[in-house]
Amino acid sequence: MLGGSSARLARSFTAILSTLSVATALLAVAPAARAEVAAADPIDTAMRACLARADRSSTAGQIQCMDDARSAWRAAADTALARLLAKMPAEQQKRWRSSQQKWVAWRDAEDTMLVAAFATTSGTTYQLYEADMRLQPVRDRAIALRNQAAAYDGKPPLARACSADAHCEHVSYDLNRYYRQLYTRMPAHARPVVSRAQSAWRAYRDATTPLIDERARLDLLGARLATLKRLAETVNDR
User: Fold this and answer.
1) Is the C or the N end of the chain the one with fewer CB within 10 Å?
2) Hey, how many other C-beta atoms are within 10 angstroms of the C-beta on 124?
3) pLDDT digits 0-9 by tens, 104-147
């Protein structure tokens, strides 16, 4: 069981990540309104209530709260995707289904990478961090699909090439830098797991960015940067 100070730290950390967009919180480059889309979402509210329950105060209980929220966000993502597809002609549906397939493949590869990364740490707080990092991509995807479904008007998204967007260029540079740091810090036997997860993320990125506008692209890249930075600073921390 977590001690009082560690439990408070873990709960505060999770609450912050559950109410803010990762990209907005760490990069401050996207409008704050995007972070507020799901600020009062019933899934977040239920998770916070679960985390505060006395019978969920153990590490296992806290992780169960986050895993339950992850399952709820996965269902929310499926619902949002169905709403989006219902508005689209067949060709666009095909492209969004490809994006979702690539996202699922990345999510599975990412979970494997998280297991390998957190195997280099010790302590109950890191178990909570791992559960949170499994939750966040699912939550981010659900919110992104909700945004797309709400905003869809049949027009193609307006987005410059990343090379013409200073924010996109900067985030991409830092993203690659932290990926290299993470890869180097991981034990040699686990590095293929990291490269597979990153390759799967790139496939998801490449399938998705042509379908979204610059702001959504920045959210996608920023969330990945936040993950890689956090892991690069966490691996081998005992």
Assistant:
1) C
2) 18
3) 999 999 999 999 999 999 999 999 999 999 999 999 999 999 99
Round to whole Å and give the CA distance between 47 and 56: 11
Residues recorded for the chain: 238
List CB contacts of 209: < 8 A, sequence separation 6 or more.
159, 162, 217, 220
**Distance between CA atoms of residues 178 and 26, nearest Å:** 14
The first and second tokens of residue 58, run together, are: 């153990």
Report angle CA 214, 219, 220 to the nearest 5 degrees.
95
pLDDT at 9 over 70: no
Flag whether pLDDT at 162 surpasses 90: yes
Give the span between the Cα atoms of 110 and 97, in whole angstroms: 20
Q: How far, in Å, CA of 68 to CA of 128, rounded? A: 14
The Cα 136–Cα 233 span in angstroms is: 18
